[in-house]
Amino acid sequence: MSSSNPLNELFQLATEHLDKLKAAGILPPEFVEILKAVASQMRAEINCRVMDVLSIPEAEDAARFERLKIELETKLNDDTDQP
Fold first, then answer.
1. How buried is 79 (Cβ within 10 angstroms: 0-12 exposed, 13-18 middle, 19+ buried)?
2. What is the extent of the structural domain holding 11?
3. Is residue 10, in this structure, part of any structural domain at all?
4. Does residue 1 lie within any of the structural domains?
5. How many Å is the maximal CA-CA distance in the chain?
6. Do the Cβ atoms of 12 and 3 come closer than 8 Å?
7. Burial class (CB in 10 A: 0-12, 13-18, 19+), 12
8. What confidence tens digit (pLDDT) does each residue in 5-37 have?
9. Which has more confidence, 2 or 80?
10. How many domains is the chain built from?
Protein backbone atom coordinates (compact mmCIF):
# COMPACT_ATOMS: atom_id res chain seq x y z
CA MET A 1 0.00 0.00 0.00
CA SER A 2 1.50 3.28 -1.08
CA SER A 3 -1.19 5.70 0.01
CA SER A 4 -0.40 8.29 2.63
CA ASN A 5 -4.04 8.38 3.71
CA PRO A 6 -4.92 5.67 6.26
CA LEU A 7 -8.54 5.57 5.09
CA ASN A 8 -7.45 5.00 1.49
CA GLU A 9 -5.14 2.25 2.72
CA LEU A 10 -8.07 0.53 4.42
CA PHE A 11 -10.16 0.65 1.25
CA GLN A 12 -7.20 -0.76 -0.70
CA LEU A 13 -6.86 -3.54 1.84
CA ALA A 14 -10.57 -4.32 1.56
CA THR A 15 -10.36 -4.60 -2.23
CA GLU A 16 -7.30 -6.85 -1.92
CA HIS A 17 -9.25 -9.15 0.42
CA LEU A 18 -12.14 -9.21 -2.03
CA ASP A 19 -9.71 -10.36 -4.74
CA LYS A 20 -8.47 -13.12 -2.40
CA LEU A 21 -12.04 -14.26 -1.75
CA LYS A 22 -12.65 -14.30 -5.50
CA ALA A 23 -9.44 -16.26 -6.13
CA ALA A 24 -10.44 -18.78 -3.47
CA GLY A 25 -13.77 -19.29 -5.21
CA ILE A 26 -15.73 -17.99 -2.21
CA LEU A 27 -17.24 -15.00 -4.05
CA PRO A 28 -18.19 -14.88 -7.73
CA PRO A 29 -16.04 -12.54 -9.88
CA GLU A 30 -18.99 -10.37 -10.94
CA PHE A 31 -20.02 -9.78 -7.33
CA VAL A 32 -16.45 -8.91 -6.34
CA GLU A 33 -16.23 -6.33 -9.13
CA ILE A 34 -19.47 -4.72 -7.92
CA LEU A 35 -18.21 -4.64 -4.33
CA LYS A 36 -14.89 -3.15 -5.45
CA ALA A 37 -16.75 -0.46 -7.39
CA VAL A 38 -18.85 0.31 -4.29
CA ALA A 39 -15.68 0.54 -2.16
CA SER A 40 -14.03 2.85 -4.72
CA GLN A 41 -17.12 5.05 -4.84
CA MET A 42 -17.24 5.28 -1.04
CA ARG A 43 -13.52 6.11 -0.89
CA ALA A 44 -13.86 8.84 -3.51
CA GLU A 45 -16.96 10.36 -1.88
CA ILE A 46 -15.32 10.41 1.56
CA ASN A 47 -12.14 11.96 0.13
CA CYS A 48 -14.23 14.58 -1.65
CA ARG A 49 -16.04 15.47 1.55
CA VAL A 50 -12.78 15.66 3.49
CA MET A 51 -11.33 17.98 0.84
CA ASP A 52 -14.43 20.19 1.05
CA VAL A 53 -14.15 20.45 4.82
CA LEU A 54 -10.40 21.15 4.76
CA SER A 55 -10.32 23.57 1.83
CA ILE A 56 -11.72 26.62 3.67
CA PRO A 57 -9.30 26.51 6.64
CA GLU A 58 -6.40 25.76 4.26
CA ALA A 59 -7.30 28.74 2.07
CA GLU A 60 -7.51 30.94 5.16
CA ASP A 61 -4.11 29.68 6.33
CA ALA A 62 -2.59 30.32 2.91
CA ALA A 63 -3.88 33.90 2.91
CA ARG A 64 -2.67 34.48 6.48
CA PHE A 65 0.82 33.19 5.71
CA GLU A 66 0.96 35.23 2.51
CA ARG A 67 0.18 38.38 4.53
CA LEU A 68 2.87 37.43 7.05
CA LYS A 69 5.40 36.84 4.28
CA ILE A 70 4.64 40.21 2.71
CA GLU A 71 4.93 41.90 6.10
CA LEU A 72 8.31 40.25 6.75
CA GLU A 73 9.59 41.07 3.26
CA THR A 74 8.51 44.69 3.67
CA LYS A 75 10.25 44.91 7.05
CA LEU A 76 13.41 43.36 5.60
CA ASN A 77 13.39 45.81 2.67
CA ASP A 78 12.81 48.75 5.03
CA ASP A 79 15.70 47.62 7.23
CA THR A 80 18.11 47.26 4.29
CA ASP A 81 17.12 50.65 2.81
CA GLN A 82 18.14 52.56 5.92
CA PRO A 83 21.73 53.85 6.16
1. exposed
2. 6-81
3. yes
4. no
5. 82
6. yes
7. middle
8. 899 999 999 999 999 999 999 999 999 999 999
9. 80
10. 1
